What we know:
Blueprint: H1 19-43, H2 46-65, H3 74-99, E1 111-114, E2 121-123, E3 132-135, E4 141-145, E5 148-152, E6 159-162, E7 168-173, E8 176-181, E9 195-199, E10 201-206, E11 209-216, E12 219-226, E13 235-239, E14 253-254, H4 265-270, E15 278-281, E16 285-289, E17 296-302, E18 307-312, E19 329-334, E20 340-346, E21 349-353, E22 360-367, E23 370-377, E24 383-389, E25 392-396, E26 409-415, E27 419-424, E28 428-433, E29 439-444, E30 452-457, E31 460-466, E32 479-485, E33 491-497, E34 504-507, E35 511-516, E36 519-524
Antiparallel strand pairs: 1-36, 2-3, 3-4, 4-5, 6-7, 7-8, 8-9, 10-11, 11-12, 12-13, 14-22, 15-16, 16-17, 18-19, 19-20, 20-21, 22-23, 23-24, 24-25, 26-27, 27-28, 28-29, 30-31, 31-32, 32-33, 34-35, 35-36
Helix pairs in contact: 1-2, 2-3
Amino acid sequence: MSERSPWPPRSDDAHSPDAATVLGAAVVLLALAGICALLGEHLVLGALRLAAGILAGAGLGAALLALPARWMRPRPRRMIAAILAVVVALALTVPAVLATRVAPLADRAEGSIEALAEGDLVHSVPVPDSPVLVRRAGGAAQLLDEVGARPVEATAHDFLALSADGTRLVRATGASTEVMALDRSLSAPDGGFPTFSFEGTPLALDGDRIVLRHCSEGLCRLSGYDLTAPEEPLWVVSGSAETRGTDPAGTLVEARPAEPPGLLDAARATGVLPTIPLHFDPAQGWVQLDPATGFPVGRLLAGPEEECRIAAAGEATSAQDPLHATPRVLTVCSAEDGALTATAFQDGAQLWESAPSPAGTWSVRLDQGRVLAAGTELGTDTPGEILATEQQADWTAPGGQGVRQVAAFSARIGIDGARMIVTNESGQLLAYDTADGTNTWTLPLSAPDAAVRGTLDAGTAVVLDAVVRERPLEPRSTQRLRVIDAATGEVGVETLVAGDVGAVHAVGAGRALVTVGEETLLLGS
């Protein structure tokens, strides 16, 4: 007798393909799955990798359909085959997709605000737990820290600046000044800050001592107050009606300006009120004042007729003590031919003076106890940079001899008085001492030819470099974002970012503001 199927024939089985045909289709599907998997890995194509998982599931489902009919009824077999195909396809694709998924950057953010726009300014100080001051182009302001964002009442005409230690915010409106304590535990229920009000314009804030200038009925005076007992001034001295101000530390300015800066121009540019009160008298020139007594400190810093830039800029910080720099005053004076002479003072005493630079047309940056000049030497048309420091009398190229023997630089992330951060053709991110070229730290890039961008500010570097795709399902636009302590090279934040990243701003204490889509995120260690 011939062997018969235990199941009675059904009308829909008459048109079903035979087992050999189904098995052949299963073999073809599995073979295609293997080819797609190999090509997907070789060509790093996510579509082929997904197709491999789907084809493998379909192939196994077809193989189940090819089983002898006596093992299982046809209808349940088709249902189980379809379920098997779906389960296998999901098992081969979903885990792979999840493994290469890049988490949203917002998951790592300590705070967020509306995306920064053109004209918005970001100010910070290199002090842990200090807030970041964001000044919108329209005048509105916000303080942002790890707890969140706090609005600051201000108009476009108001002056706003942080104290150098990040514990206070100073607002000047016309002839009055408000000093706000930024300790969140002292905030009022309405979100306001404990505030002291004074008459005058702020010149400097050193710890608990603030120095102000006030003019009334043609007479001007300088006064100092102790913020722990602000009822009466510590001292009052007469001042001149001259409104010439200092220059912003760390900002590139023309060595010979068409007009001298105003009283608050420097602090507006940096968003930080200096700790050293400097006063210009048309009869004497620039002098440094003692914030405790109002008396001049040391010698005259620059004469009234000299073409000088002057700024209170701390000495270059070190990796051992990156947050503390001794307050110093820098001047850089220009001769008629454009030659520059830089001088550094501490407590009114001269520390060093440079030899005259080559004549030319220069812009200067007074920063961390050193002077950087960028421009064109007289008789040439090639722009360049020169540096004056405590290490030598003559002006030299940044890094001096120390950087001339290393691999060629391919990009520069940033430069300040202490260091310059660059990339080289070997695929490295490096920091060099601006004065002598000592290599202070080195980090790898994802590839020698990786696209790199970033910023350096307030002792922090933020760097984005393109990630080389190694797996098919990795996003094509993935970048690695690192927030780095510029003094030590310690990486406080390292994360992958998929999609377009807008502007990035390095801010103090190893943090960064990163704009993604419609929001700007605060990242920190």
